[in-house]
DNA sequence: TAGTGGTCTAGACCACAAA
DNA sequence: TTGTGGTCTAGACCACTAG
């Protein structure tokens, strides 16, 4: 018995090549800096075309496992880093995906005059109009996020009239202003007085805070501070060589 | 004048296709759920081979911008998420890359008997030997990370003899046990008494805490808790459609 | 000059889904 | 049955690096 009992999935050829190299790297057979077999070596080894080998190697490069240099060769990359994809999804979706009940309470919804700094973030002038909302998200009745948001009226003029029981601010903004770019930071902070009150936590309980600015077609759409009680919220991730 | 003044970089064909679609998506010409042109449409449009079109589409899929269904078509993905690569590098490298001075102080280096829970993490039995280290990292003389680590002696028998002034624990472990898998969480916590003392911060200052377990060839190598003062440390990231 | 990777083609066969 | 995407081939030309 050597292969494919019954109609077992006949793994694509490029995956055979890719897995062979990946296993060699994660098993330590090749270590950081080692020269790997060339494309033509792999062509002979696996009896496949060069395009197929090339796809395997390109994907390993995109995964950060190898480095390639034209005219020189393919090498095992330094794995002195753990990279993985951090995904920040719409919170309502995330909660529902866990099979829990998502609720949202609007605490504030208003128009404000931009400070100089805020105006700068949005490419507007100080004193220009901005929308401001503060809403709290609940999972099975427990507060999990305080969302303090500024919105550029130019990209979402109807923002103040949205029914946030039907559509979360994130969902609405993604709909009216297709996401093209985002920048975020993650830090640990103590809650403000208001955040502590809205989240029903102690002012001494640390919060995981995500600050995010998003852009659509190069224009700033919204700037948001998402505060999560540290005791109930964490980000998870993984990585596989 | 229609093309290539002088020897301007002749962008690869697959990038022309990829950029055309990406710009259409981020400009809102196509929005989430829309059907995109088929591979054969793009072949005629750009006068290139199907393999070239296919590469462009495959990369857009890997970037999370489109969804593809065999027999159906290619659609704009829901961008109800912001994904980006979170990279956790060796701290010494990171500090040096910023042009700062990295220092490290070893606070503890010992052998301990595994508790039942720790043993489980490492696939050992309660009471088995584990190495334990607590070191503090400094950037330009300022404490930035407290690293509390357990190490599996089977994968790094010489751990206790390493000179951590020369090689950080992370660097050493990556060298002796090639990284094959990692799992981490990120949360906001108050420091323990020891952490507060070692980091020279108040016991009320929130910390950004990364807990990470890494594996090599399927065997648990190390389990570490990295605590960073919230006031000086944050994770940054970005995303571009 | 020889060997490497980067890109591209014009076909091909297949699995799959919808009409 | 038609059109879709998923994979693969056997060539090709090029730019780059090293000896």
TrEMBL record, chains A, B:
Residues 11-79 form the HTH gntR-type domain. The keyword Transcription regulation applies. The lineage of its organism: Bacteria, Pseudomonadati, Pseudomonadota, Betaproteobacteria, Burkholderiales. It comes from the Bacteria. Keywords: DNA-binding, Transcription, Transcription regulation. This is Histidine utilization repressor. InterPro entries: Bact_HTH_transcr_reg (IPR050679), Chorismate_lyase_/UTRA_dom_sf (IPR028978), His_ut_repres (IPR010248), Tscrpt_reg_HTH_GntR (IPR000524), UTRA (IPR011663), WH-like_DNA-bd_sf (IPR036388), WH_DNA-bd_sf (IPR036390). It comes from Roseateles agri. SMART domains: HTH_GNTR, UTRA.
């Amino acid at each position: 018995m050597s292969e494919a009992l019954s109609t077992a999935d006949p793994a694509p050829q490029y995956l055979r090549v890719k897995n062979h190299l990946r296993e060699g790297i994660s098993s330590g057979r090749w270590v950081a800096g080692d020269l790997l077999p060339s494309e033509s070596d792999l062509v002979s080894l696996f009896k496949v075309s060069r395009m197929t080998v090339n796809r395997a190697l390109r994907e390993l490069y995109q995964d950060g496992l190898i480095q390639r240099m034209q005219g020189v060769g393919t090498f095992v990359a330094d794995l002195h880093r753990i990279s993985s994809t951090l995904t920040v999804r719409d919170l309502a979706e995330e909660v529902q995906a866990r099979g829990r009940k998502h609720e949202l309470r609007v605490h504030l919804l208003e128009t404000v005059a931009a400070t100089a700094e805020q105006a700068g973030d949005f490419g507007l002038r100080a004193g220009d109009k901005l929308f401001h909302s503060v809403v709290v998200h609940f999972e099975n009745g427990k507060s999990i996020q305080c969302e303090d948001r500024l919105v550029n009226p130019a990209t979402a003029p109807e923002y103040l009239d949205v029914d946030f029981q039907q559509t979360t601010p994130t969902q609405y903004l993604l709909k009216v202003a297709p996401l093209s770019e985002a920048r975020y930071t993650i830090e640990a902070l103590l809650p403000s007085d208001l955040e502590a009150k809205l989240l029903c936590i102690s002012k001494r309980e640390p919060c995981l805070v995500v600050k995010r600015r998003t852009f659509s077609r190069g224009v700033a759409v919204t700037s948001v501070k998402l505060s999560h009680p540290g005791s109930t919220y964490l980000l998870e991730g993984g990585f596989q060589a």
